[in-house]
Amino acid sequence: MSMHPRTCVSAISTFRLSLPEDLAFWANHGVTNVGVSVAKLEAFGWDEGAKLVAEAVANGLHVVDLIGLGPFHLARPERWGAQRDRLAHSIETAQAVGASVVVFTTGPFAPLTWDEAADALDEALTPVLREARAAGVDFAIEHTNSLRVDVGFVHTLRDALDLARRLDTGVCMEVNACWAERDLASTIADGVDRIRLVQVSDFKVGTLASSQRLVPGDGDIPLARIIAAAESAGYTGSYELELIGDAITEEGYDRAVPRAVAALEALLPA
After folding, report:
1. Residue 76, SS3?
2. Interior angle at CA 118, CA 116 and CA 121, nearest 5
3. Which own/partner contact pairs does 114-121 have at CB distance under 8 Å and 24+ positions apart?
4. I need a labelling partner for 183 at 20 to 30 A (CA). Which of 80, 96, 103, 189 fits?
5. Which residues are registered as beta bridge partners of 36?
6. pLDDT for residue 70 is more than 80
7. Domain spans of the chain?
8. How high is the pLDDT of residue 169?
9. pTM to 2 decimals?
10. Which CATH number does the domain 7-265 belong to among 3.30.565.10, 3.20.20.150, 3.40.50.2300, 3.30.1240.10?
11. Mean pLDDT along residues 60-75
12. Which helix (H) or strand (E) holds 251?
């Protein structure tokens, strides 16, 4: 499989595989542009995992981003130090493997209000952002489905862009979480300067769980229209497949991931 240079496969798409298994899967299927999972790095061992990925990079792998970075608990400042350390470790790893973006979710906020949570995130993140800028690594806020208040308080692309401007970060546009937003094309056009990554998957109307995603073309999201809007706005970054759920595991990674790559690439400009 020869990949389009702007197609990327997130390690979430092979959720049940370990880091070494991801690397083998990518090599076997010709996946050359990837998002590496922080959780899988941690499970294997940060330093040894980074070395494995760096070896793969030396052999042609391109790491677009680090993903799956656990959130701050915004109402509990006593826990921020550990998460800052984790973010700092992610910056070091991103540098080591050549990733330019670290994607993160904002964290749960109850019992804070939305605005109080934004203030808390600003305070919690500021020291790490200084380190990231000095290292040439960008942070991107990922907005989440409103069912996932356990991992984030930002549930629309528009709010993510507003918060990113305040914090001077980027945004990971999660299509599965924003495809039904009002006037989405205008939001993309107004915020394209902040969009660092676009995550792509499909969704079947009537599904009642946020984590039941589909291969592009198997559901109801108007992906061609959304990608066209991003392209018209001047977006030039990667489109990252983030597949998860029963349909993906039942089909099997060996079939679902290559099929998703082909479906996504059919929507991208040559």
Report:
1. coil
2. 110
3. 114/153, 117/74, 117/75, 117/153, 118/163, 118/166, 120/72, 120/74, 120/75, 120/77, 121/72, 121/74, 121/163, 121/167
4. 103
5. 66
6. no
7. 7-265
8. 96
9. 0.96
10. 3.20.20.150
11. 90
12. helix 246-251
Q: Are 143 and 155 in contact (CB under 8 A)?
A: yes
1 pLDDT band, cuts 50/70/90, is low
State the pLDDT confidence band at 108, using cuts at 50, 70 and 90: confident
Bridge partners for 141 per DSSP: 104, 171
Give the alpha-carbon dihedral of 11, 18, 74, 127, to 10 degrees.
Answer: -80
CA dihedral 257, 210, 39, 33 (to 10 degrees): 30
Average pLDDT of the chain to the nearest whole number = 95
Residue 228 burial by Cβ neighbours in a 10 Å radius (0-12, 13-18, 19+): middle
Structure tokens at 44: 């294997």
* Count of beta carbons in the 10 Å neighbourhood of residue 70: 16
Q: Which residues contact 102 (CB under 8 A, 6 or more apart)?
A: 65, 66, 69, 87, 90, 91, 94, 132, 137, 138, 139, 140
Residue 38 has pLDDT above 90, yes or no: yes
Q: What is the dihedral of CA 97, 234, 187, 91, to 10 degrees?
A: 10
